[in-house]
Predict the structure.
Amino acid sequence: MYNSTPRLTVVGAGPGDEDLITLKAVKVLKDADVILYDALVNPLLLKHAPQAKHIFVGKRKGYQRFSQDEINDLIVKYAMAYGHVVRLKGGDPFIFGRGAEEMEYATQHELIAEMVPGISSSLAVPAAQNIPLTKRGSAESFWVITGTTKDRALSKDIALAAQSTATVVILMGMSKLSEITALFKAEGKAKLPVAIIQNGTTFQEKIAVGTIATIEEEVRKNGLSNPAVIVIGEVVKHRTQLNLIQEKVYVKSLL
């Protein structure tokens, strides 16, 4: 029998850096009986829950250990058998993380369900590269869009975003990069700055910076692939400007 009331806590693990997880999330991990964790979760976070069963249920393009339906069933199964199940998901579970779906399924099976927000990669990954999503004179708003919908098609929202002056952040969009750039070119924005950051905030981080016209070549030169965050907008220039200033300060300090 279970050790405590059957329940689910969906927890955001942050963008990848093990330090970018909330204190509340760490407290919940320490209370877990079972942890079901995703591919984008830094496995070092599991050290906060040595008492729990650790079960990998990650999905990546071309590889899927468990379907979403199977994961839903595992949540209920382990909650009934052990008590407190923590569903540890990369970034924030309510931003393209299917956390809401898992909570709905759990409550339908009479589990208590709670959510601990996480730091979304859509915000943190650009910030870690000194790219602000909003900046006076450059961008008054931003879009966060999935690059690939449930039907494996490009989100129609990207075409709308391409017409705006907002910063556009696209997750899960690397396989659609040619289609994305074509939409911006059609709006006369071939010179618009773009940054693509792979494995953001981790030691495996890689970045390519260019424009709508050049970014595909930059991606090829730098060997970028998923998982990556695509940032499109004038705010990308802030990173370049800041890097130049920092280089000058560094050189001056050596003199």
Observations:
- The longest strand covers residues 7-12.
